[in-house]
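Quick question, first post here. What does this chain look like in 3D?
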Amino acid sequence: MADHQEVSVTLPSTPVSVSTARAYVTGLLTDWGLPPGADIRDSVRLIVSELATNAVQHTFGQSPTFTVQVQLDRDEQLRVGITDSHPRWPQRLPAAVQQDNGRGMVIIRWLAAEAGGRMSVTPTEEGGKTVWITLPWPSATPLQGER
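> Answer (accepted):
Ran it through. Tokens below.
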């Protein structure tokens, strides 16, 4: 596998794009050799769902598209970013007992930390932002008989 792989896709900011983003990233993980039972697979799927949902719901029509970026560096680190053009950065909201939403960023941070990674936010030149998750890529398991 190459030392560095990077791909992206831009999708319309519509609810159907959330499942498209999730399927896109899941397919890449498989193509790049992540075993089906790898612990981070489900975490990445949920993180992408949450980030894409935020890009659709919380940009208030100011970001007609969002971009999913996926990078794999030297089989060591996976980075997934969701970029939108809305200038407001994600905020942690206090979790009220009756509140139905607002917990996505807490979930994303927790899932990233649980997998040994982190979440960060960077500004774009156009005034938007990219929310990144960075996770360790599982090292290859040696085949039986190899040492």
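The beta strands are 4-12, 65-73, 77-84, 118-123, 129-136.
The chain has a mean pLDDT of 85.
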